[in-house]
Design goal:
Number of domains: 1
Order of helices and strands: EEEHHEHEHEHH
CATH class: Alpha Beta
Strand order of the largest sheet: 4-3-2-1-5-6
Shape: globular
Number of helices: 6
């Protein structure tokens, strides 16, 4: 079985949904489970024909001039960028898993654009949501699973700039740190069960007469 490759992906857009609004920029950082960054992909996109910015996102972008400038340089046609991206994902040395926070937003845009411009999605129909993983690991209410509420030990020293590639790398490292802790917890639980901690597997055997 091929190892999974965790493709941390960040999308910058000018509205809440694709079609009426456009994906301005996207980036992916591909990680192995042991947090090796094995490749990145990023592209800034021309806006969709007939689409327009949503007033809320348009106002927000005015507060982020550096990130706006970064995502409006070297623009590519969506068809070319998404075709190149799908080819890149399919060439990764393992089974690709789409990872994002929140995946509901980023995967919505990426899936729509991949299907619209390439007719296929190398991630199938699913995405791994870091927010949901945090919900399962912390015991916090789901709506409280935001980055400031998560354990600081999960975070590496990466910037969050609203530049897609920076943010994809940052959240990919976050995910790998969470995954490492989850795997360690699972291993400890399995070892405890094997040693008879509450399982009775190593209960004393009555000696034979």
């Amino acid at each position: 079985m091929s190892a999974e490759i965790y493709v941390s992906t960040d999308v910058e857009a000018d509205g809440p949904i694709p079609g009426p609004h456009s994906m301005l920029s996207f980036a992916s950082a591909a990680y192995t489970e042991d947090k090796q960054l094995i490749g990145t992909f990023s592209a800034n996109l021309e806006v969709l024909e007939g689409a327009s910015a949503h007033p809320v996102q348009e106002a927000w972008w005015k507060t982020q001039p550096e990130a706006w400038a970064a995502c409006r340089t070297d623009l590519q046609q969506p068809a070319k960028a998404l075709t190149d991206y799908v080819t890149w994902v399919e060439a990764l040395p393992g089974k690709p898993v789409f990872v994002a926070m929140p995946a509901g937003f980023d995967f919505t845009f990426m899936f729509w654009y991949m299907m619209r411009f390439t007719g296929r999605c190398p991630f199938s129909w699913s995405a791994l949501d870091i927010k949901t993983l945090a919900f399962a690991m912390t015991g916090l209410p789901y709506r409280k699973c935001i980055k400031p509420r998560l354990p600081q030990r999960w975070f590496d020293d990466h910037p969050h700039t609203h530049v897609a590639l920076d943010d994809a790398i940052e959240q990919g490292a976050l995910f790998c740190n969470m995954l490492a802790e989850l795997r360690a917890t699972q291993a400890a639980t399995a070892a405890a069960a094997k040693d008879g901690d509450g399982s009775g597997q190593k209960a004393a055997v009555k000696p034979a007469n």
